[in-house]
Amino acid sequence: TEIYTLSLHDALPIWLEATVHDNLAEVAYLFGPQYWGQGWASAGLQWLHGEIVRTTGVADFWATTTPANVRSQRLLLRCGYSLADPPAAALYSWEPGDLVFHCNGKGSPLV
Fold it and tell me: What DSSP character marks residue 78?
């Protein structure tokens, strides 16, 4: 398991993370409301995907959201993810009731 975390500054609520395991990468992010709608999350996911592919060769990306987190769902869909069933390998971030999103990074505009 490899974990990638980027926090741009302790005082700024910007955080990106990926956990790489079982030949897949689970991505997560947190952006404070003052950064919403400015492209930071899209750019962050693009950087994170590229870094994971470059350092591990893994290009199978997964993310989960709560059903109420519509902004995050829209972001994932814009970034090439699609709604999916959970993979055979357990997702560490999944909880019952969560929505699961998948992006095969090969050929993705994010990589």
Answer: H
Strands (E), the chain: 2-7, 14-21, 24-31, 60-65, 82-84, 99-104
CA-nearest of 40, 21, 22 to 32 is 40
Give the span between the Cα atoms of 23 and 61, in whole angstroms. 9
Q: What's this model's pTM, rounded to 2 decimal places?
A: 0.84
Q: 58, 20 in Cβ contact below 8 A? A: yes
Residue 43 host element (H or E): helix 40-56
Query: What does DSSP assign to residue 72?
Result: H
Rounded CA separation 3/1 (Å):
7
**Each residue's pLDDT tens digit in the chain (111 positions)?**
555 555 555 556 678 889 999 999 999 988 888 878 888 889 889 989 999 999 999 999 999 999 999 999 999 999 999 999 988 888 998 999 999 999 997 655 555
Q: How many residues in total does the chain contain?
A: 111
